[in-house]
Amino acid sequence: MGKHLGVAYNLRLPQELKDKIAESAKELNRSMNADIVARLEDSFIRSDSSAPTNADVKIFHLKNGIKRVVFGKLLNNLSLDYTQELDQLRDDVHLALEVLSGSSFWNSLKFLGKDVLVYKGDNHIDVVDNGKKSLGWLIVEDHYVANNK
Predict the structure, then answer these.
(1) Predicted TM-score (pTM) of this structure
(2) pLDDT attached to residue 50
(3) Are residues 10 and 70 in the same domain?
(4) How far apart are CA 50 and CA 120, in angstroms?
């Protein structure tokens, strides 16, 4: 038995959560205990930071005086070309969410019971729970800014 620096704690959790932890631990090639500890540490780091991760905002300067504002929980998890037309960007967001849907990361988004839809309006894109509300995962808004020169 190796060095044991931690304190033992007997934890009861629902079978579904245990299965998610086991899947995540396997994907990350670590023990379930290490996965639980890493997740707990990460949650404390996030709660201690001065700005939550969903407060990140990116602004892209497009042609014709349009500024594209992008924000949401998935902003730093998706590497997309945010300068493309909204129709194409909507399709890329949809594809990225399909790929994520098979990962343990998707489970952390708590999508169960939600009908996830990438909605495109005239000047924006939003990932929504169909017919209900924005999920706050990714919002893209185009703003026209007049030049006062």
Answers:
(1) 0.60
(2) 40
(3) no
(4) 32
